[in-house]
Amino acid sequence: MNPHQQILEKSAEAYQLYLPHISIDTVIFGFSENELKVLAIKMKFNNQWFLPGGYLKKEEHIDDAAVRILSERAGVTDLFLEEFSVFGKNGRSEEVFSDYDDTLWHKQRFISIGYYALVNYHDVSPKADELSNEFEWLDVNNLDEYSITMDHKQIILKALLTLRERITYKPIGYNLLPEKFTMTELQRLYETILGRTLNRGNFYRKIKNLGILTKLDELRTGGAHKAQDLYSFNKENYEKALQNGVNSW
């Protein structure tokens, strides 16, 4: 079955399964090789990159729908997930489906609820479906290099701005870093998200004062630099810091 026929079939199914005019778009952030990345999908009917998204079932809670979509599209279940904005510009999706009849489900005007997710880059297993055939982690600092559909670039940038605001008063890293990491790796994560260099001494002091780390009896060896201490997150204290907040960086 060609992509055109598949879209028509999906349209007929959608009218039966989902609430009209409401969609969900997810910005999945991962951290790898000192770069903050976002997961994108390339659809068979369009040579552009889409955010993993979907629709709200008629009897479904919105947050549950976001969790379901992330599981179905990216194979992600253990994550940090947060709603961050709503997108409803007139004509935001119609142009992509301009070759189809106006009755097509996907061509209707949709108000999209944006969620961002923080995941371990290496734990994500994207799943292709009838309409998608390619996945890629896009570098958030070089989005202009990619052809991104509709307003999805603006959604990514809004999610990044939200993440930067959040990092000034809540800890970040539990879902983005591996189980064991060095303080240098944690600082690089913060600097990558914030887009600026942080003073090493001040960063180390603030992080340690939060009490969210456990120093391990292990060292990261290898490479040109001397061995560094390894840490893990203290989940209980991390959750407390999420509730109580932290001082600005």
From TrEMBL:
It comes from the Bacteria. Residues 19-162 form the Nudix hydrolase domain. CDD domains: NUDIX_NadM_like (cd18873). This is NUDIX domain-containing protein.
